[in-house]
Amino acid sequence: GQNIDQPTEMTATEGAIVQINCTYQTSGFNGLFWYQQHAGEAPTFLSYNVLDGLEEKGRFSSFLSRSKGYSYLLLKELQMKDSASYLCAVMDSNYQLIWGAGTKLIIKP
Amino acid sequence: GAVVSQHPSRVICKSGTSVKIECRSLDFQATTMFWYRQFPKKSLMLMATSNEGSKATYEQGVEKDKFLINHASLTLSTLTVTSAHPEDSSFYICSARDTDRGDTEAFFGQGTRLTVV
User: Fold this and answer.
1) Which of the ends of chain B has fewer CB neighbours closer than 10 A, N or C?
2) Which of B23, B43, B89, B101 to mutate to test the interface with A (most CBs of A within 10 A)?
3) Which residue has the higher pLDDT, A14 or B102?
4) Cβ distance B106 to B98 under 8 Å?
């Protein structure tokens, strides 16, 4: 079957760095996405990785290792507004998105 | 990026009535749109894939007679929750990809919070 695993909840301190991991097992692979979702709102796109390596975009970076079925989202210089759920999703061979359950990130002052 | 508009953002309806949710791609044509349901503190659950000009493809366990999907044009898909019951209360989200541009990113509507009383 298809499976996406990510931690349920993480806590970090304002100004610090946090890494949210995601491991996956899917039927085929056409890219991995990270989305941010604030409570009561729809997800917003953060990053897309289809090749191995690190993609940096401002305070957020995303890493992918296809051979290991592993990705992480790195958030630097954490701000209170970064408190949200972070969803990992993999596009399978049918170009459908398979979603992880999301990681709730709590930022403390 | 591309814009997907979903309406209404919130709706409260009485048990037994039907509710229609619209999803529009504003600046691109979407031959395929996706409808998701999200329970509190849970991830997105794909309900169905909406195909322009043909029948929607429903995921296993989703009642097609209860969740009617119509994709009459390249920019509009609708989800109608028929004979709604309190257990249908949820957050419904649509998304679309601009496949003509070869985009892989899915753009989401704002979501609809449905409460059935």
Assistant:
1) C
2) B43
3) A14
4) no
Q: Is A93 exposed, middle or buried (0-12, 13-18, 19+ CB in 10 A)?
A: exposed
Quote the CA–CA distance of A37 and B42 in Å, as a whole number. 12
Nearest chain A alpha carbon to B94 = A42
Q: Confirm if A88 and A105 have CB atoms less than 8 A apart.
A: no
The residue assigned the tokens 């109608």 is B80
Answer whether B106 sits within 8 Å of A40, measured CB to CB. Answer: no
Of B43, B105, B110, the CB nearest to A48: B105
**Per mean pLDDT, which range of A13-17, A32-36, A56-60, B101-105 is the poorest?**
B101-105
Is A60 in a helix, a strand, or coil? strand
Q: Which pLDDT tens digit goes with each residue over B57-111? A: 999 999 999 999 999 898 999 999 999 999 999 999 999 877 666 666 778 888 8
What pLDDT band is residue B38 in, cutting at 50, 70 and 90? confident
Tell me whether B63 touches chain A (CB under 8 Å): no
For residue A74, CA distances in Å to A82, A88, B24, B53, B93 come to 12, 13, 33, 42, 26
Interface contacts A/B by beta carbons within 8 Å = 45
Query: How confident is the prediction for chain A on average, in pLDDT?
Result: 93
